[in-house]
Amino acid sequence: MSSDDETYEEERFQCEHIITESHEKATYGISVCQQTIPGENEETFLFATCAINQICIYKYDVVDKKSSVQLIQSYCDSDKKEYFYDCKWTMFENNTIVAAGGLRGVVRIIDVVHKCHLKPLRHLGSVNQIAFASGRSTLMASCCSNYTVFLWDAEAALCLANFVGPDQHIQGVLAVDINHEGTFIVSGGLDSTVCVWSTQEKGIIENMAIAKLGPLFREFRLSQPHHIFFPVFHSSTMHEHYVDSVKWFSDDIIVSKSADHVYCIWKFNVGQKEPNILFRWHRSEKSDIVFDVRFGLSVSRKVMGIGRLDGSIFIWNITTLPIQPIVLTHRDSKSMVRNLAFTHNGHSFVACNENGQIFVWASILS
């Protein structure tokens, strides 16, 4: 997993800020905006969190070598029983967007620039995770408790396809990711299965073109999601427990994690029945099986982080696997860290835990 033409200096992180959100409930969703902010220094970034029925947007800034975190926007869903599980950033043309989905099956689309809600994306089950294709920023994949994966044009608010059938997930889907070009989706679920789906079917391509027409056209109003019944790859042998975190590492390499703390970096080939496992690691915990603990990958794919039950965080240098991870601890972090997300340059990351605490970690080297 190392690269001969790329040097890497091991990152060491320190906790700079701790934010305790007023709800003090489990925060499952946290995401960093990967676009640089015009007129700001390269260490400045925006990040979003979601918990209960709230979405919060923060700005991290560095002035005269002193960092600060400021809450700049917050949104509260009118449904008090809503509980957001995930949030992600994307761009619609030049507008910065935050999307969040959860218990009620509605993905809220928020235009951060104009501070307004766009048309929501409605599902028939709880939305466990969402993901955007970084190379095609309006393409969004979502996964639901009703065993289904969906593909959307989020800007047009049009469902392009659903992925469900006899040779796929037979329980709720917990994790989803879409690759850079939006050509493949990977999903993991309660059934311990990992599936890879193609978005290049003729019916999906046609729906993508229809989405660009807009709602004034008859074809748009009459369009129906294309149904995909069979994944191009699926495996139930890599993991023995719930697969609660999956991410694309490259065009054909995927990282997956299960609730029993097994991590796999593996390569898939269309048509092959079994994955080519490049790296597999298992860590033991004192507590029982816990799912919905998600790992984070830096944009460069050099650093991976995962929270632990005791509030500490594992950080791997992926270029030097199988070297053991470094462990980050903080005296005020005693609850399970549910999720974390890296900045565009990998110099900082943010993490969230069970008690509504948000931790901002920055590289000592930066």
Automatic annotation (TrEMBL):
Keyword Transcription in record: yes
Pfam family, one: WD40
Homology family: Belongs to the WD repeat ESC family.
Domain of life: Eukaryota
Alphabetical keyword list: Repeat, Transcription, Transcription regulation, WD repeat
InterPro entries the record matches: PcG_WD-repeat, WD40/YVTN_repeat-like_dom_sf, WD40_repeat_dom_sf, WD40_rpt
Protein name per Swiss-Prot or TrEMBL: Uncharacterized protein
SMART domains on file: WD40
WD repeats: 166-207
